[in-house]
Design goal:
two-stranded antiparallel ribbon
């Protein structure tokens, strides 16, 4: 999955990785399993903006913490800085990665297992 970043108060936060930590954060925030939200049945009905925003926030929190940086932005403050087109782009890429069964790193590996360099 390509890395999407959102800048909040001058700090860029990565949002392009759906991790186990992000799934756990989403569940703790909403009380529901994120995979239910991303399921084909839910996709047919359409994901709510609340679920989409919360999942995007959870991914940003997880990716930022994985980089060893502090993440202290609340969900609502994060979403106040997130235009709908960014959320929709992220969702499209997340669903494409899920349907292919690959995450960003696996999709970028060469045949010999080496990670290819990424260009934006």
């Amino acid at each position: 999955m390509k890395n999407i970043e959102l800048t909040i108060n001058g700090t860029a936060y990565p949002c392009g990785t759906l991790t186990m930590g992000a799934l756990l954060r989403f569940e703790r925030e909403t009380g529901r399993n994120a995979m239910e939200v991303l399921s084909p049945a839910s996709q047919k009905k359409g994901i709510s903006f609340t679920d989409l925003g919360t999942l995007l926030w959870a991914c940003a929190a997880s990716a930022t913490r994985a980089e060893g940086r502090e993440f202290s932005v609340s969900c609502i403050d994060f979403l106040d800085c997130c235009p709908p087109e960014v959320a929709n782009k992220w969702l499209t890429e997340a669903l494409m990665a899920q349907s292919s069964g690959l995450d960003g790193e696996d999709a970028d590996k060469a045949d010999d297992g080496e990670k290819k360099s990424q260009t934006a």
